Amino acid sequence: RIKVMQMLYALSRDEELNPSETIAIYGNGIQNCFRLFLFNLFVIKEITKSAQSEEKRRKSKHIKSEADISFTADLYNNELIQSLETNETLSKRFEDLEFSSKLPDGFIEKLYKTFRKEEDYEAYTAKETLTQEDNVQVLLALFRHCRKDDYYNEIMEDHFTNWVDDKSLIIGALKKAIKSLPAEGKFYEEYYPDKETTEDFGKTLLKEAIDQEKDLLGIIEPTLKNWDADRVAIIDMILIKMALVEFSEFATIPTKVTLNEYVDISKLYSTPKSKDFINGILDRLLKLYEKEGKIKKEGRGLVD
User: Fold this and answer.
1) How confident is the model over 225-265, as pLDDT tens digits?
2) What is this structure's pTM?
3) Cis previous bond, 193, omega within 30
């Protein structure tokens, strides 16, 4: 929904952008989201390699402390990370996408050094015996540490303009991927947005919202009462139009789900008053659609 909203907003603002180009850009956005997921996975893997470098450095000292002697690169040598490191198809994908060239000098080392000071990592390295769950939790802690780092976010934005908008999606997918490790083969393709979501829902929603734009405006305007349509926030109008398309075109999505989703999106992307405004307008429009028989849902309880 957010992707579709972004595309409709771009179309409304850019006079040179046409509907066909908008739909094509939407498709490219899905690809970029997946590449962003892979890049985050790559960076996490690379950071853990620094533990191996630290171990070699410590072992090569002429005079070693007890800490030097006891240190092991478990952050890198664990089964989870090694399943990524030895995955030839994943490595080839990283190479084809030229991820290594996107890493500035010292970037990985800086993230590792700051993570070393975190309590989660200190507790991890202090354990004599590590479980699979310990390895999962330390990698989740590493990813959490990265997300809080300004430099990390800066690099993500430099290479992927969709980082800010897609960040929540990437976080969810990467957490799931870490918890699923060790994995093999093309496991990462499981995190490519499925056709049902991107094509059957997203692309259809985008196309219908574009095709029905004038009709939707004609339906919405009478419900605004004292509001002039031109005074309604652009994002609010887009979200209302999208919701109307969902009400009438997607038989398996409950109307309550649609209404709640767009109210929630407005909290993140529009004005402080938008959530109440959108909720009120959609409530009126839903009653109108029900009265006119435009709501046709499949399955028990989907209209409520």
Assistant:
1) 766 556 678 999 999 999 999 999 999 999 999 999 999 99
2) 0.72
3) no
